[in-house]
Fold:
Amino acid sequence: MPLYINYPSWIHQQIFPGVPFLGLLRWYGLMYVFAFVTAYLLFQKQVKEGALNTKTYTVTDDDVFSFFVTGIIMLLVGARLASCFIYDDTLFYLKKPWLIFWPFRNGKFTGLQGMSYHGGFVGGLLGMIIWCRKNKQPILKWVDVMGVSIPLGYTFGRLGNFLNGELFGRITTQPWGIVFPAAQKFSSSIPWVAEFAELAGVEVTGGLINLPRHPSQLYEALFEGVFLFIVFWSLRKKKPFDGFFLGLYLTGYGFVRFIIEYFREPDLNLGYRIQATDAPTYLNDSLLNISTGQILCFIMIVTGLTVLVGHAIWNKKHKA
Structure:
């Protein structure tokens, strides 16, 4: 009896596969649209609650729209640049930088395949800072409102990864493990593979078999998205200082993502950045095997704690 789930065969990267012109529409791109719209609506909700209004200034719809457009453009730029220069070790884009934002390969539309969350976060944050400086708005106050708005929108980004059948996790015998078609296959003649397949209830019918994986995209959608949103949304009217949600988001997202990275398989071309054992990337052999994503998350955690603790120290000093 199978103790795993087969990736649904009806899911395709294209929304309308095989249909002329409409076949260019992809679920991943649509999920990005859902993400931005969700964040925008949540941002607007907080603006209507008075989160950004002051005695001398009332935020307009045009303010919010231009703020979002600036942030989104910089987010996409940052996400693409980080993907090309941090996660691509072939130096392809250093040799052909004009292809970084070119969505075609070999005459076919591919979209911008490869977007880095951490690069997108830095790019988006810079975009928001630039907009606030240009429009003489309080940076931390605006960034806080965005920090509350981001997580639920981010959920759609990870659902897009799932619909693409990418960024899946390491192999598992848990009953919710999923067999992803694009995952690495293993020779059934290897003893540990045969034993693992038996534990997972995978029928060995050929020389190569595909083992179940953690659906790490769904873990991220749930915990980095829904869970953080519930926490932040419930606290949105109780923040103790401007910059609180910036620090909380950096710390909270960094911590949750750091943990989930133990279930998600690192990029095969990069492997582990810090490696304590010789375990392959599809096995969670040691907590000391650290991926690129975990290093970037650690930087987020330290930065977030610096914001939170730094303000507490400053506040205590000036009250004394």
Observations:
- DSSP finds nine helices and six strands in the chain.
- The beta strands are 5-6, 104-105, 108-109, 178-179, 186-187, 208-209.
- The longest helix spans residues 292-319.
